[in-house]
Amino acid sequence: MVAVCALGATQVQAADGDITQYKLSNGLRLVVKEDHRAPTVAHMVWYKIGAIDEFNGTTGVSHALEHMMFKGTKKLKPGDFSKIVAGLGGQENAFTSRDYTAYFQQIQAKNLKRMMELEADRMHNLQVLPAEFKKEIQVVMEERRMRTEDQAQAKLYEAFLATAFEANPARRPVIGWMNDLEHMTASDVANWYHTWYEPNNAVVVVAGDVNPAQVKKWADETYGQIKAGTLPDRKPQVEPKQEGVRRVEVRAPAENPYVLIGFKVPKLEDVAKDRDPYALDVLAAVLDGYSGARLNKSLVQGTQEAVSVGASYDMTGRGPSLFYLEGTPAKGKTVDQLEKDLLAQVKKVADDGISEQELERVKSQLMAGQVYKRDSVFGQAMEIGQTLTLGFKVEDIDRMIDQMKTVTRAEVQDVAKRYFDTAQMTVGTLYPLPIDPNKKQAPAPSGMLH
């Protein structure tokens, strides 16, 4: 093992306080956000590895590895990690997405160094034991059954992505295809771990009642003892241009029909120069950002064509972005009509624009959401970790907000005109089959946590 020390610190002036950043000489990035309102801390380790990096044959390996990270190291037996955290009165979990895998603990500040020791240990010393893997992969497959195969809308969403994208790995489910899980081996997971779980592919975020210099010292003594690894090149996987509407149908037991529409739109690349992603984000909020937003007001409260409607767009990510419209038609109404109604609402913005009141309402909602998110140390750590892992800088968090404030009505109308051509549209439709009254229904998915 190699002893290294942290390089010089840099500080970023954030809207709600300073953030101190360090980079260890092994490449690990450490970010410390002070918040002394309570003697607690959120400690997170983010790895830039997720489903978007996987290959056919081993889809779901990032998520399977997340599970195995709790199953023992050279120092700890399976389950010891969680027992130690619980014994110290803390909470911990992990999540895997298309873009990253992250692990976290919420703990008393006095126990932070112990958490850093534990995470540094499993960053370098994980043991993927075949016997433990054989048991845990069954847990993962059951999770897939509960969250996807027994959930009609989740099945549609999975089929939708596999239709919307031909070449980009965004078409694959984060949890993996069942056939890949059935044939996955402990060696597959171990190889993935040794390939990607390196300090120079990780971001450690600490937010709470801490002193940055002390946190840096502890990082030197824990993460800093791990030698940097050689990471594989990430090859671009550019999606071919879509040249016509794509449709997919799923027929599964469900209470209601459902329609999901997606359009290929740009994502944020340059925080200062890009404008369309900000305008698209505002458009999504105008359509579905508050209780009186356009979709709900027009199609649920107004014409009563639907019992639920929605619009969403995520402008950040390592893969391609989609702008979503969705809805469940009211009794006696059809998904075909609701599809037309949803598209008509976007066309109305394209034709007539939005009001100044709508724009200001959305911007106020944006600011309120930021204040709420930053009210918790965990929310702050999440925001920082996600931003850095997706390739942006800490200071970009406030820059994005400042840019969003400058979006104009004309820009929102312009993106509504340019990006909602049917040549870029994918439509997924759920047609419900009768629900077996004797079959126990699985609970609805409740997030990514393992």
TrEMBL record:
Keyword Protease among record annotations: yes
- Gene3D superfamilies in the record: Metalloenzyme, LuxS/M16 peptidase-like (3.30.830.10)
Record domain Peptidase M16 C-terminal: where: 184-366
Superkingdom of this entry's organism? Bacteria
Q: Write down what this protein is called.
A: Zinc protease
- Which family does the UniProt entry place this protein in? Belongs to the peptidase M16 family.
Pfam families from the entry? Peptidase_M16, Peptidase_M16_C
Q: Where is the Peptidase M16 N-terminal domain?
A: 30-175
Provide this UniProt record's keywords sorted from A to Z.
Hydrolase, Protease
**Biological process per Gene Ontology, one example term:** proteolysis
Q: Tell me one GO molecular function of this protein.
A: peptidase activity
User: Does Magnesium show up as a keyword for this record?
Assistant: no
